[in-house]
Design goal:
With 552 residues, the protein is of the alpha+beta class. The chain has 18 helices and 24 strands. The protein is 33% helix and 20% strand. The radius of gyration is 24 Å and the shape is globular.
Length: 552
């Protein structure tokens, strides 16, 4: 495969012209043997039936029975006569069929991870898009163009009018159906990202090898056309994995984040890998920016802004994939440097990470934090999982769920009693920041970031400003099939490094509400403007500052 990363491992960028074509990539995808396909289907059905925390909930809310769907697909695979087409599904169709069953759950914690060579690869177009909704009709705007790609007039600020002959709004709505988003806002936000980036973790590459755009350049009034092919490149290695028991992350969202950094900010990626502090470009003169605060955490950016002579701090948290003790120490240091009159925490597109890190951060902002509680699906398999781990580890984190699981099974309740995953004593403070706080969210704020947002609301820490009408609504602790096998001491690995991820414990907020699908709607929605998309969120930050410092 020809990529700039292979020719120059230190570059950590993408040379568009040397990236692999979609057809070349598809030509090297190996076929799965019939027995391998049956193993995937049998394992997926078992994992969902035994461990999927949201299974009873999803059957009601989504009207789907994924276990029955997988079993029906197995019958189709095993018996050619049962297949209306007369033959077993081929490998690409097989992957698409399994992915569709999982997509109908609208749960980005619960996924069929495609086997090699799909996993670790991304299909992409050489530009990024943003949707401006704050100035009349929604407008799809080019926000970034990959270095090395040139087409006359196709520059940041250009407006995309149609997508392969289809209106842009309809294209986004159709893609939202398979996006995995748990609610309408989340599905639309994810569809917008998937227009130009398709990490091949949970969905095959696009069917078409190219797209054709009609666009309007900022300098002209006459529409132009651009036909551009999808390309394929390897993703950079993921950030440090969170400890498995407390992990809550959207892996596709993390991959989208990594690819965007690889494509448009390779200098940041290089600095991260070298253990250096990334240098960020200076903002435009009109941006509400005053002074950047250096931090060695690559997933954190901190600065002090100023609007109408009023100063406020800003923390942009990209994810919670961290060493929690070091992270909390650094957050305490940064918060102590923030102006006392206001703080903005930006969690847009944060895919999650380590739940205790998110909840311990809340404790730096308020006097009392009550951690969320989590519950297992009440099955014999989950009980045996907890018992086996406790037999091997005297200090097992799963011991608190053994008796609740026994009780739920005996009384035929669907879930165990919920208990805290983060020890309450870890959220005892001390409080560091006492000024007013505004939290910014998006439809791709997910998982541990959803849990942070729920705690922020339930503890009345401050106002929530959303660029979408809801968060991603991922309310679970997620484990991989490999982790389940490791804890149980049994199990067979899936072929070609295929994997399954499952929401193992569902999250209940302090008010008893299920977080999955419901999410956390903001107190106020900010419709992104063209200036937000092209000038570093300047209007968004002014709106946030207005919530910190309301006028007369």
């Amino acid at each position: 495969m020809r990529t700039s990363r292979q020719s120059n491992p230190d570059a950590w960028g993408i040379d568009w012209h040397q990236a692999e074509t979609l057809s070349a990539f598809q030509d090297r995808v190996p076929n799965l043997e019939p027995a391998e396909r049956l193993l995937i289907l049998d394992t997926a059905a078992q994992v969902l039936a035994d461990h999927y925390a949201h299974l009873p909930h999803k059957s009601r809310s989504q009207g789907t029975d994924p276990v029955a769907r997988l079993q029906a697909l197995r019958t189709q695979e095993a018996d050619a006569d049962a297949n209306p087409m007369g033959v077993p599904l081929g490998t690409p169709d097989f992957h698409e069929a399994v992915c569709q069953i999982f997509a109908e759950l609208h749960d980005l914690h619960t996924l069929y991870i495609l086997p090699d060579p799909y996993a670790g690869m991304v299909a992409f177009l050489p530009f990024q898009l943003g949707l401006a909704t704050g100035e009349g009709d929604p407008t799809l705007i080019v926000t970034h163009v990959l270095p090395g790609f040139h087409h006359t007039g196709f520059i940041p600020g250009a407006t995309v009018l149609s997508w392969s002959g289809i209106k842009v709004e309809r294209t986004i709505r159709r893609l939202a159906l398979s996006s995995g988003g748990a609610n309408r806002a989340a599905a639309s936000a994810r569809a917008l990202a998937l227009l130009t980036q398709r990490p091949m973790l949970r969905m095959p590459p696009p069917d078409a090898e190219w797209v054709e755009l009609e666009y309007l350049s900022p300098a002209t009034t006459k529409p132009a056309r651009l036909r551009v092919a999808w390309r394929v490149a390897p993703l950079p290695p993921p950030d440090q994995a969170a400890p498995p028991h407390a992990s809550a992350i959207d892996p596709e969202g993390a991959a989208l984040q990594q690819h965007r950094k690889q494509s448009y900010a390779p200098h940041v990626l290089r600095a991260e890998r070298a253990g250096a502090v990334p240098q960020h470009p200076a903002p435009a003169a009109t941006h509400p920016f005053h002074h950047e605060i250096a931090t060695s955490f690559p997933n954190v950016r901190a600065w002090i802004g100023e609007v109408d002579a009023k100063r406020f701090g800003v923390l942009r948290l990209r994810n919670f994939v961290v060493d929690q003790d070091l992270f909390i120490d650094e957050m305490g240091r940064l918060l102590s440097l923030m102006p006392p009159d206001g703080l903005v925490i930006d969690l847009r597109d944060n895919p999650g990470g380590l739940v205790p890190a998110a909840e311990r951060l809340l404790a730096l902002l308020t006097d009392t934090v009550r951690p969320v509680k989590v519950a297992f699906l009440a099955t014999q398999a989950n009980l045996e999982l907890c018992q086996h781990h406790a037999a091997v580890h005297a200090d097992s984190e799963l011991i608190p769920w053994i008796v609740p699981l026994q009780d739920a099974i005996a009384n035929r309740r669907p879930w165990s009693e919920a208990t805290e995953m983060t020890p309450p004593g870890d959220c005892a403070g001390p409080r560091v920041y006492t000024g007013p706080v505004v939290l910014i969210t998006s439809g791709r704020t997910y998982s541990a970031a959803d849990i942070f947002t729920a705690g922020f609301r339930d503890q009345n820490i401050g106002r929530i400003l959303g660029v979408d009408a809801n968060t991603g609504a991922g309310g679970a602790n997620m484990w991989t099939h490999a982790k389940i096998n490791e804890i149980a001491g049994t199990g067979i690995a899936l072929p070609h490094n295929a994997e399954l991820r499952v929401a193992i414990r569902r999250v209940l907020r302090n008010n008893g509400q299920v977080l999955e699908e419901a999410g956390v709607p903001p107190d106020q929605v900010h419709a992104l403007t063209r200036a937000d998309l092209l000038e570093g969120d300047c209007d968004l930050l002014r709106t946030a500052a207005g919530l910190l410092h309301p006028g007369p």
